[in-house]
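dumping this here so i dont lose it again. seq + smiles for S-adenosylmethionine
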Amino acid sequence: MLMSDSRFRELAIGELERITECRPIRTLSILDKYISILETDTDILERYNRDIKDNIFSYALVSLIDHDFDADRISDLSEIVKGVLPKGKRFRIFVKNFVDIGMTQREAEISIGVKIESANNPVDLVNPEVAVVVILSDRAMIGVSYDENQNYAITSILHPKNTERRSQINRSEVKLAEAIAYFRIDTDRISRCIDVGAAPGGWSDIMLRYGKSVIAIDSAMLDYKALCRYGNVMVYVPSEEAGLEGLVSRIDSNIGVERIENLKVPDGVMLIHIKSNADEGIIRRILKETKADALLVDYNLTPPESTKLVLNLSELLSSNGILVFTIKINNRNVNYTVNMAIDAISSIYRDIRVRKLVHNRREVTLFGIKR
Ligand SMILES: C[S@@+](CC[C@H](N)C(=O)[O-])C[C@H]1O[C@@H](n2cnc3c(N)ncnc32)[C@H](O)[C@@H]1O
């Protein structure tokens, strides 16, 4: 049995069916707007740990208990949690609440955990053998998930380890790294990419590290100091920002500054930053010079606005080029928002997939290949 956040149910089913080669996933019940129970065969659960373990649309839980829940009596849950906790295992409680329980999730975890902890069943926050998940909504769903030696993926429940490196520019960087791994993007197929909404330069940093040349578009400054370690940088500024020339070029001798009207894409420049919004004029100027084999879009615009931009920018992408596009989710209707974006771009892109990455916050990441 799989448990899914109802808001992501369709996305979860689509993604699970794709990974498991279309074995049907059935919706057993939709408890409420937050909790859905999906049913599948054991074969899929056996593969869960291997293939789907970090699919955060869903949790694979066993010994599931569906309990009438009164938000004022959270302490009653300890006995039930104790009932599903396998004896002798190091455990950690995860509370996910969608209703007001008068305390934080962390406080609820501690309150339940300390009541049931014993010498035989110690709490282990870092490396638990079993996770007990308590999902609180109009009802309480309580189930367990085991470590890697069992077939149920605890890793989908554990908060992602901090994979961030000290040298990185920002958290966004981890999102692109994760998208490359999850969508199995073959970076060998990319030689030049266009990174739109690029500032301060996390995604550019990832692509430069792969040895790709990058055209970054953003009206804000990039972290030139960090990015110039990969080679020459050219910054194209609008004429009203001509004063930046002195400032930027003092950062490092690898950095040149020019006006946007003189935009060129010369060989031997690893990073070109066009310090502007990605408007029609900029797209035309770039098109005169080059196309790219990857288009990376991480704008913080509304989904219809950013989808429209992706459509306009697609001209810059060669056929079979790769699109990675962050869709901000600013309302509860995830499926509607995502489907609207997919519908809008599907005549131009194929093999579209969407995932809520571990490091996505209120957003999902879309992958597609240009037809
Ligand atoms: C989430 S940040 C991007 C982070 C970036 N991917 C990174 O890894 O560092 C979104 C960026 O989109 C830019 N942005 C928003 N609207 C834009 C527009 N119309 N044209 C260009 N950039 C825009 C903002 O300036 C901001 O830097």
